[in-house]
Each structure stands twice: as C-alpha cells, then as structure tokens.
Amino acid sequence: MPTDESAATDRNGDAPTTADDGRSEGTGDDESARTDDESARTDDESARTADGSPIDTGGDGGTVIVPETAGAATVDGADFDRSDPAFYLNRELSELAYQRRVLHEAIDERNPLLERVRFLSIFTRNMDEFFMKRVGGLKQQIEAGVTERTVDGRTPAEQWEAVLDAARPMFARQTDCYENVVRPALAEAGIHVLDYEECSAAERAEMREYFERSVLPTLTPLAFDPAHPFPFISNLSLSLAVLTRETDGDGTTFTRVKIPQNLPRLVAVVDGERYVPIEDVIRANLDLLFPNVEVVEASLFRLTRNAEVRRDEEVAEDLIDMIEEVLEQRRFATVVRLEVEAGMSERARRTIVEQLDLDEREVFERPGPLDYREFTRLLELDRPDLKLPEWTPQPHPRLQRQRTPLGEAGDEADIFARIREDDILLHHPYHSFTDTVQRFLAEAAADPDVLAIKAAIYRTASDSGIIQSLIDAADNGKQVAVMVELKARFDEQNNLEWVRRLEENGIHVAYGTIGLKTHTKTALVVREEDDGVELYSHVATGNYHSETAKGYVDLGLLTADRDIGQDLVKVFNFFTGPSLDEQFRKLLIAPVTMRDRLTECIRREADHAREGREARIVAKVNALEDPDLVAELYEAATAGVDIDLIVRDICRLRPGIEGVSETIDVYSVVGRFLEHSRIYYFENGARDPELPVDAPGGHPEYYIGSADWMTRNLDSRVEAVAPVEDPDIREQLRFVLELMLADNRKCWEMNADGTYEQRQPAPDEPDISTQAVLMDQTRRAAAADDVDRGIAADAFHETDLLVDAVGRDSGRPAADEASVDAGDSPDAAGSESEASEPPTVPTEAAGPATVAESNGAEAAVATNCDLPAALSEHPDAWYRPDSDHYAFAVRTPDGTVYRKTADGAASAIERYRD
Hints:
By secondary structure, the chain is α+β, with helices and mostly antiparallel strands. The chain is 31% helix and 19% strand. Strand 19 (522-529) and strand 20 (532-540) form a beta hairpin.
C-alpha cells in the first residue's frame, strides 16, 4: 500500500495526500483540529483559528471579526456581501490546517505504532511540498512586487509571514511527538532508534568499520574558503555543516558534507531491533574524513528550494525543451526554507543564511531529526502487531465471474459485454486497479474488434502496465492516441520518458495545451460490433497510476453510454486539434461548461428552498477554493439549502455563521488511504411529494470526475465530470456519502473560525470508520455469489448510516428501503411512491441510543434529555440559540460557537474553560 500519500498531499496537482510512492495525505495539499496527544481535542495552537483570525459568530447578529490584515472590520452575518474578506478563509492557512490533521494521525494513540511512524513521514513530505509549491509561489510574488490582496484580504507578504508563523509550532509538535511519544514507544516494543553514544563500545567499533568501508568513500567534503566558493546545496538534501580548525590556527573553516541519499538512513546495529541514523554515524567518525585538523562542530541542516519555476508557454519553441529547462532551473531555484539542528553555532548558521540570502524568519531550528521521510523503512519490519491489518484490493463482482485471462480477447463474458449490460462503478483501493482499469485497456489492446484507444495520462507509475497496454495496442495495428501532460508538477521527468517511449512505438502523443493543464482521467475504446461501432468510456477521479491506486480513494465509471462516448471523442479531438468544442451532451467539461453548470445546480437548489421544498447539496472534493462557488454556496444557504461539504484539505468557506452559513457543515476525513474522489450530489426536489415522478427537477443528480472546486480546476485545466444515471450506482454513491457523514472515528468537523474538531464516538457507541466499513463491504461483496455491485447488498439496509433516503429516482419509496430483501431489484417497489421521513444517524450525543433527527436543532435538543456534566455545571456558559440548525450556543473568550449536540457543546465548554 502506498505509504506516503494516503493521508495528506497528493501530487496529482489535486491537493494534499498519502501513499507509498512517496507522497502524502492525511493526504496530498492542510489541517487544523484537535491534536491533543491524549484526547484529540483542539490544542492551544489550533484552539483559536486556523488562519489567525479570531471569530465571533455572536448569537445576536452573527458578527464575524476578522484580523486587520484581512482588510475588513466587522460584518453582520444577516447582510452577506460576497466581496467581504471576512467570509473567506485563507487558502495557504487552510492547507496548513489540513497538515495539522495529518500530523494528528501520528499523535493519535489509537493508531498502531508503525502507522504513526508512517504519518510522521507523510507530514514531512507534505510540508516539503507545501514549502516548495505554496511558499515558493508567495516568495516569487513578493520579489515581483505583487501587493494585490487575495479574496480573504491578505497580500503575498502578509500570507508569507502568517504561513511561517503557523508552520513553526507544527514542526515543534512533530518533533515532540517523535522524541517524547513515538521513539519511547518503539523502544518499549523492542525497536530502538539510538543516538550513537547509546551504542556499546563493540557496537561503536562495528559502526566505525561500516563507516570506513561503506560510507566514507561516498562522501565529498566541500570547503568554503578564499580558494573555494560556497558549495551548491541540492533541494531537500540533508547535510552536515562542519567547522574545522588547523591545529596551530585560530580561525575555522566551513565545510559542507552531504549525507548520502543512496545508503540506508537508519543503519542497523541489530537488524529489526537497534538502529542508528546515518548522520550520527558520520558525525561520530569525521576524524577519518578530516585528518590532521580539529573538528570543532558538526551540525545538521536541510534546504528547501522553490519548485514554482515557470516559463512562458506562448513563446516556447518546443514544449519538451521548455519542460527540460524548467527541471534544470528547479535545481538552482531560490531557497524558501532552512532547517537547522538545535544548538548549531552562530558562526555556522550565519554562514549559511548569508550565503543563501535568507531572511531569519525562513530559518527553522529543530531538535531531533530534520527529515522523517526515510523512517518508513521501519514499516518493512515483520511486526504485524504494530501495523494496521494488510489490505488487498478486491476483484469487482461484475468482472470476476467467467472472465477470460487478462489481456486475451473475450467472448460473451468479456469486459465489454459486462459494460454493455450496465454501467460499472469502480472504487479504488477497495477494488483492484489491475483487475479493472488495467484489464479494460489490456483486453482492448488484444481484442481484434477494437479499432482505437485513446487515453489522457496525467501521472502514471514508473513501470506502468497502462503504457505497456497502449504500446501493445499500437503493435496490434490499432489507432492509439495518448495525451500526456508534461506540466504535471514533480512528474515532468517521468512523463517525458513515457512520451519518448510512446513515440518510439509509433503512437501519436499530444503533450498538452497552451495555457491549460490536462487533468482529465479518461479513456475511450472504439470497438466494431455486430450492430455497429460502440464506444466504451472510463471517466474517473484518479490517475492511471497502479501504485497510487493502492492508497488513493478514487472512483471510476465504466460505461457504454454513447452520449458520454461522443463527448469524450470531442475532448480527445481537442488534445490534437485546434479548439475545444463548447457543446457537450452529458459531460461537464472545464473550462467551457463546468463552472456554469455547477452554478446552475447550486442556484436551482436555492430556488427549491425558496419554494418551500427541502433542498440539499452534498459535495465531496479535495479542495473548495473558488471564491465564486463559495459565494454561491453562501447564498444557497441563506435560502435554506442544507449543505454538507466533505472537503479533504483547503476550504475557504466558513460554516456556521448565523444568518449566512448556519445550514452548511464542512467535514474532512483523514485515514490510512488518501481521500481523492470527487462526488457532487444535488437533491433537485427529490423529496417533494407534490412533484410528479416525471416532473422536470424531480430527480437528484450525481456526478463524479476529476475536478475539485478550485479556480484552477474550473478555469485553467481540462477536466471531465460525468453524470451518474444508473440507479444502482447512485445508491452506492449515496451510501458512501452518508457513511462519511456518519463517520465518528476519522472525520473532523470544521468551525466557523477555520479550526477543526475530530468526532469521537460516545462511550457506548460503536466506531464508524468510513474506510474500515468500505473495506469490509468490498471484501464481502467479492466473496458473495449473489452480489453484482462493488458494495455488499445488505449495506443498504443499515439505515442508521443513511441520513436522507432518496427513493424517487430509484423507483422505490424511501420508507421501504429497510425492508427490501437483499435480492430485490432496485426498482421492485414501483416508481410512483413518495419519499417518507428520512432515517436517523448516530451522533456524538450521550448514549448509544441517542440520535439527531435530520430536521435540525429542535429534534436534536429533544433527544438530549440528560445533559452532560459540563452543561449542568456551567449553565452560564451556554444557551439555546434561535436556530433551525444548531441546538447549543457556547460562550467562549473569542465569541460564541455553535454545536448541534449536547456532547459537542460540552466538549467546547471543557476545552475553552481549560
């Protein structure tokens, strides 16, 4: 399973992550919330605001107080002005808030010990990428004299200062977690990461022999003196700053020694039990590298360089040459962060800072290791007692029966026959990527009836089976066209190599589009059949990358829908042709139709609400950054639309502002896999009993695809989002969304000030963990003989996980859902029935039987008869607000915060009182 991205920053250009290929989540591009070692409550660092903004959502007026740097005074929540900075959180600080949530996975004692080590590594990788991309971009703007304010009211300089201030305590918390919690716990489990001095004399002698034999020959000391310029220091390399003195001299010489990256970072003293960091082995034996001089000091340091190196595509003569030049320039880019070991002398520190022209605010002094990335080596130990249970992606039930051997042409049971029967929803990493997506293209490559294959590659594995299938297809005489995005950041070199290999095999390759990145995750197979040419499409949320598919949560739709196929024909023609069509049958395509369609859907929900109909939006995205969509959601909320946003990392929107966003809830799920899928749900009058079934606007709409709700995705990238019309697949998507909203183990809920609180199950309430439930359901579905969909059929009868039952489009009443037998067809009950009251979902309220009805605060209050102790003991600290959405208002030093449940209010009282 990918180890560094299932939790925090995904290098898909999509946002934060976590997986084994060296990326991160939490989980890729990001978190602030409760990170107390013992109770996971908001700590002092995050108890205020994620972006430094105190907020008062006052019970009487919804007044939001913003910092002076945000460019606004106070705002009356009842008079929403979409241009007011007070209503928007800062993008960079919101991303750091996500990274706090990622770091919490290392702090959380409920996680297995080696899983916590993994998240220490993920956090390092995510923060490295954040500084390379986001801080690097801010520094570029500052150097260019940019003073324009963001939508939240900050200049680049103000953002840069705020980001550095916010990041500093996060690094301190990571170090504290390792030194005082994880490292002692590892020792207790028999895995010792030692200081060199902690080794026995015999062990030190063995380490010295290892150094002389294997390490010393790889080292190259680079002195800085009148005869030698200051050495070049590569990005993210770990180095020793060594000060030496001649035995008869007074002055010292600065020398840089790079820690070799091609040797194990943790040197095994006793394999599986005792390790010493290689930098300590080198430091302890520097007398062999510097004979006849006195080693005065040897301190660790590490540089981070800007990755935001850009060239003007309009004037570039050759895109490949431009990308190669960007890669070369990135090696020598501006330094944006210097990490130094605590205790480094002023002489060594000043030398580095002055020679690299750094601001002291860019220097981060840290005790302990400066780089935790390679600590994932410990995950290779055979210690299942310290890890999460292994997960093996499962075959999809629709594709595993009677299937032909991978890559061979099939008969009536081939993959194309399965797709013709009905659309197929793939859910990775729960479903095997190899046995689904890779099989789709492998069978197409070998099938004599396939005429053409087209695919858009944003990122792919270094040993990609997908690429090999495309090459095989060309060898078999098929027309093959591939769009490879050369501008996929940090994957440029890998993609360049694939371009050359594809072209060497006679495949037509498009490199990208001027002014746009191609971010679609789509493939098209054109097949000659008895009744004519058929189009088979794959529209997905994730890349054609077999490794990240093991750790990223992504969705894919396999369909023979001709309208979707024809739309993809237009998209692929754009990659090789001169222009992008602006008319599409079903797909939402950025940058031409997607923004307008999303805006239309949001406004339509607002119209339903104004007409007195129940209206609801649920969106699962990696990031919600686009100011215009944020404003549209605010305005829909003021109309009464119930909005649930499951946003992995960046979120500019403030929920819970009375009179503006009190009907909006924002959640973030951070777990072992990186949440990377995008699902949009618009209820569209589905629960209105007055609307006939065939009335326009009487059916909910579901969409999945590649686009987040960010300006870059809507305006600067080619994205594809597909409507999901199959009732069975819609039901599966609904189950996933409602499960995430019911999660009380890995789900965080956002406050109006940008901070997050992690949900906790009540004392007698079972844990509900989205990813654990989906692993179990997928495993059961694969093992069952009578299940055709990717989630076991009985999952849809667990109505405590279904908040709002939507039965109109599936053709059966919501009231009948819990009583339908597992073998019943989705449309067994007919299409004329009306939806009934929705079922309930467990919340954080006291006691396992306590539930909050979906009709808002009034019912939530009614179910909380026995108040928690904190509410009883501090009656002056809370009151019942006049709100349809919140049951409790808690008075805090920074203003009033709102909670739906008694336990949530009690938690807020305890935190702020402490």
